[in-house]
Amino acid sequence: MVKVALLIGVGEYSEDSGFKPLSAPTKDVEAMKRVLEHPEIGGFEVTTLINPNQSEMAIKIETWLMERKPDDLAVLFYSGHGAKDERRELYFSAKDTRKQREKLIRSTAVSAESINKCIQDSYVTRFVLFIDCCFSGAFGDFLLKDDSSVDAELENQLGAEGRVVLASSSSLQYSLEKKGEDISIYTQYIVEGIETGAADLDNDGKISIKELHDYASERVYAANKNMTPRIITLKDRGFDIVLAKSPKNDPKLKYRKEVDNWAKQQAEQWIEQRNIKFSIPIRKLLDRKQSQLNISASDAQKIEVEVLQPFQEYERQLKEYEDTLVETLNAEGYPFNQTIEEALKAYQASLALKSKDVEAIKKRILPIEKIEQRLKRQELQKSRQGLDNALAQRSTILWVDDRPDNNIHERQALEAVGVNFILAVSTEEALERLNQQQFDAIISDMGRPPDAQAGYTLLDKLRSSGNQTPFVIYAGSKTPEQVAESQRRGASGCTNSPNELFEMVLSAIGRLQEFFRQPI
Questions:
Q1: Mean pLDDT of 128-132
Q2: How far apart are alpha carbons 354 and 394 in whole angstroms?
């Protein structure tokens, strides 16, 4: 058996290409090469291809695959811009790839379909494809790279028995290249998981594709809540491919896993307190562990810095949002006009911040929310005039969320205007509830482990069975793509704003006009 890897990085593009240059791809390739060819880690024969033109890239991929033998383990890695044509088919950009009037010139890029044909024509039976590809745009300190394709298109065009695809994010999300960083976020944690051995989750001395995906996904999500790396196989084959060895009994790896375990347990508290620091007893335990494993203070500190980096990155983004909110409040006063509110929502989405974390910042900084003012005044009006008969009639809504405590304030606001809630923490429990009774509406979050698109899964099951109950998706982000996809699947709305959720739900159950008739 021969372990071979072809690593391709494309970051240079002509000024009139329609693509912005990327700094990460070349360094992504260097980092992957370092871990894959290491004799005690990957043991791969590695070939690299940096900034090739379209013909060079297509020919190299085809001839490289033609040389493969049935018992080879073949890894193809690509970092650069991804593109889709008007038929939504996926292409990988090369140095000379171009757009004309924002439309991809297909003959200048390498299609996923052509690569799939090369794979099918080859003798290779174990094949792994890593994709860190996307379009580019800019916001603040980030270069946004929208893959816009690494989802159903990949599964249709590249999924095959015995082969596995790992992609940096779903088709509705952004992949990120942080300015000033050496490599992209996704590749950073793929390399980290292999190089340190931290992706060996079962401690058997081997890193499987599934373990590597689980490790990288968790680390990516800790740093950026809008990124959900994908793993795609056909008939569940390919998960158990062993990509690398890990230092099974390495003291540094044992310490890393100890630090990582305590970091996960304290993560929620860190975000709430805005202080990424181990508690005193955990600090004492880690110091004791360091001594037992005979690790130097400098090595222990280096490990802790690496483990805490994604949590610190998320905290930095929260601080950036908070500073912007304070600056806006001082300049504009409160309440904000609609344009500012929409800009703040877009800014939150660009920083990949969870709604509950943003709401905590708002409660601490802003005057009483407009919705709370309206409810308080409405309660006074009700005490003088009594409830309208229609308003007094209560509605029942099913709320599906694996973390219901995150939505306590939203439920209280809706309960104040005549809504009852039944809670479900999983798709299966929600379907069971729906079989037992009818609901006036359904609210669902998006991701519930292990399904990153559980909201869509539940919605599709309901619509396919003929259930047309109004369905609102309340998730951590709301991109135009997500809104459009939710509507296409039959949702009444998709939002990450408590105010919008309030209005969407009342509209779905026919109570919006009644609410706004109340004097404020």
A1: 88
A2: 30
Strand pairing partners for 8? 49, 78
Residue 448 DSSP class: B
- Residue 182 CA to residue 209 CA, distance in Å, equals 24
Do residues 198 and 260 lie in contact, with contact meaning Cβ atoms separated by under 8 Å? yes
Q: What H or E segment, with its residue span, contains residue 266? A: helix 251-273
Give 430-439 pLDDT, tens digit per residue.
Answer: 999 999 999 9
What are residue 202's phi and psi, to 5 degrees?
-100, 5
* pLDDT tens-digit readout, 333-356: 888 889 999 999 988 887 878 888
**DSSP states of 34-54 as a string?**
HHHS-TTTT--EEEEEES--H
- Kindly tell me the burial class for residue 442, based on how many C-beta atoms sit within 10 Å of its own C-beta (0-12, 13-18, 19 or more): buried
Q: Token pair 């562990």 is at which residue? A: 289
pTM beyond 0.85, yes or no: no
* Spatial contact of 203 and 248, defined as CB atoms under 8 Å apart: yes
Phi, psi of 162 (to 5 degrees): 80, 5
Select from 407, 415, 414, 479 the least CA-distant residue to 444.
407
Q: What does the DSSP assignment read for 76-118?
A: EEEEE-EEE-TT--EEE--TT--EETTEE-GGGSEEHHHHHHH
| Cβ proximity of 445 and 501 under 8 Å | no
Per the CB < 8 A criterion, the answer to whether 326 and 364 are in contact is no
| Residue 398 burial by Cβ neighbours in a 10 Å radius (0-12, 13-18, 19+) | buried
Centre a 10 Å sphere on the Cβ of residue 214 and count the other Cβ atoms it contains. Answer: 17
Query: Which residue type is seen at 297?
Result: A
Q: Do residues 185 and 178 make contact, with C-beta atoms less than 8 angstroms apart?
A: yes
Phi/psi for 282 (5° steps) reads: -65, -40
Q: Is 445 helix (H, G, I), strand (E, B) or coil?
A: coil
For 300-355, the DSSP string reads HHHHHHHHHHHHHHHHHHHHHHHHHHHHHHHHH-SSPPHHHHHHHHHHHHHTT--H
Task: Give the pLDDT mean for 483-487.
Answer: 91
